[in-house]
Model the fold of this input.
Amino acid sequence: MRRREFLTLSAASVGGLLVYTLQGEPLRISGEEKPLRIPLRFFTREEALLVAAATARIFPSDESGPGAREANVTVYIDRQLAGPYGRDAHRYTHPPFEESEPEFGYQGKATPREIYREGLKELEGFDRLSAQEQDRRLQAMEDSVFFRLLRTHTIEGMFCDPVHGGNAGMIGWQLIGYPGPRMSNAGDVETHYGQAFRPKPVNLEQLSQAFGRPYHPSEDGE
Amino acid sequence: MKTLPAVDVAIAGGGWSGLLMAKELGARTALKIVVLERGGPRARGEYLSGMDELDYAVRLRMMQDASGETVTLRHHSRQKAFPIRQLASFLPGSGVGGAGEHWNGITPRFLPDVFRVLSSTREKYGEARLPEDHRLQDWGITYEELEPYYVRAETLLGTAGQAGNLRGSPMAGGNIFEGERSGPFPLPPQKTPYLSALFRDAAKSLGFHPYPHPSAIGSKVYTNPDGITRPPCSYCGFCERFGCMIGAKPQPTNLLLPVLSRQTNVELRTGCSVRRLAHESSGNDSRVTGVSYIDGSGEEVFQPADIVVLASWTLNNTRLLLLSQLGAAYDPESRRGTAGSNLTHQVSHAGATLFFDQPLNRFMGSGSAGFAIGDFDGDAFDHAKLPFLRGGTVMVSSYGSRPIQNFGTVPASVKTRWGSEWKKAAIEHYDRTATVGFLGEHLSYRGNFMDLDPVYKDRFGDPLLRMTLDWRDNERNMVAFMTGKAAEIARQMGGKDIIPARPLGRYNAVSYQTTHLQGGAVMGSSPETSVVSPYLQHWKAPNLFVVGASSFPNNGSANPTLTLLALTMRSADAIVGKYLKKPGRIG
Done:
């Protein structure tokens, strides 16, 4: 077993971040208050810093609100890669592997873990570049399997339930006015026509407590 | 191989059709029945805290695990097939209940002329209008014969909707193009989310005839004839790809299993992967002697049975017939054989994407709380001057938008797909974006079929099923026409920026369309062109019944579940009323 590595997240800046809602109203988004020191499951510390830097350009923290850094997208991706998804536990991986037209889907042999390991080698030193230089590097690799995966995972890490490590403090959901897994909208679905209805978000942890049934995310399966 | 004591009926597959057959036979006879399901059991309350978009809708927790078995695909017979390494364009379920657990509950009937699509098209437009390589055929059953079973299926589910053709009278607010109904829906329509209301009002003002999707998800508390009571929908927006948290959506596990658990003559065995149907010659016919399967511990087991019902998911029914070498495999060159012919999907197309100024609150909804128009379905409109036959429904879904799958759509003016500009636009438009979609009929063609793949194998070493499937000009021209209609309605709905969908290209295995595949073991009035009779009885082996959408000779534009339930009930009636009294071909 390799030495356990940690990623320290300076999430303190999130607390009380001022953003604008879909109606243009100022809203204070709440998030994690304390800096976090999170054990990494798959990435080395160096890899995690590269992923954090790249996802922060894909979904930046800027005037339109918090982004991948505040949502802990890197933690989300690290856990996904460490779990069954990362090793392609549910993909058909029998040979032969042959190139196909895109309509047939990804035909490669490499697992998500391998795609990241290789892709991140190409990004060496990325976290020390200026934002403009970082964007140029990413633009040059936009069509690669690795970049497409990174973009997809960034969106997943922004908007997944916090139980998966991303969307910390439900910050992604607050950004777009999504209330999470609400049990019932029966009294609201035929009202609010044309008006924003933005109930306070709930998450799976709260639901699990209400039902007394712990939820086991798939990435914790092994 | 271990051989078990014989049973009267062995049913392969524990989804909608298999469990319904078990319930129908189990309740009305003393037959000893075993249902073999390859997936696992479901715990009571399993779905209660399962409202997790990532694990269920993205990582596909309820779907068939492709690592052990998938299908291969090629567009035409001269091409090499590739395995679909991650199922995506359709999503078969796994576990008890199968795909019936994670559906949206949209339950229209098929139009009457779907069942005689070849005859009715010929009569109206002449032989010359049929596509050159079509394999259209009549079903050997009429809408009128099936109507009482549609009523029974709707009563079982407790469907919610507005009749549009009640005993021949057009009804305002319903689909006036539908076949005649002998009675109203058991329940009134579901509630109307904002987007559905926008579509309804726009379509009406353009002179079309909008109607709420017929819905298996209830609008009120409903108790069906089996005594199963379900609550009304809560519009939480977690239907498709999820099991229902409160049981408002009928699923085999909440509608059929509780009844089966009271029937001591029915046994459900999970973790049992059926690999072959065993059969022997009996004169000119065959007789199925039982099924062999691998059980949960990896042991090979033979289950002898007097009657076998093949009720696995559509494509797998065909695969098991081919693996068992039961009946002649279809050959598209000689056009001999029938097992594997008439593979169809459903033409599911985005139509038009529209961006509004106002928010839509799209997180609230239900899988079947959409609205549609039937003005361009089937032959409701004249095709004499159009470059295609048949049609479909133009519609909106209000299934409850979830953020991972729906974030990121931006107007055409935004050129980037990541970074600050894209992020800002995507946040702004997240809850202001919708699509007016299209669900259309997919004709059957000689060149769209299934056989066994010569290269790729499943986890047991058996060949995968190979699909040879592509769209033709009929579907492409249909989509082009319907995209225009979708854009017209989208403009009327007040969409500020409208992006018409791209033309239909080649069959694409990457983006989700629907899980509605049909064919492979099709029904008909002649063994020359069909695998099963209109009672779903195998032509070659009279003690075998092959149920499910594998029996549909073509896709009917509408979603298939209600029709497959109705056909299963009709088959069960024939087994109880006719076959058991006089085993042999049901006349």
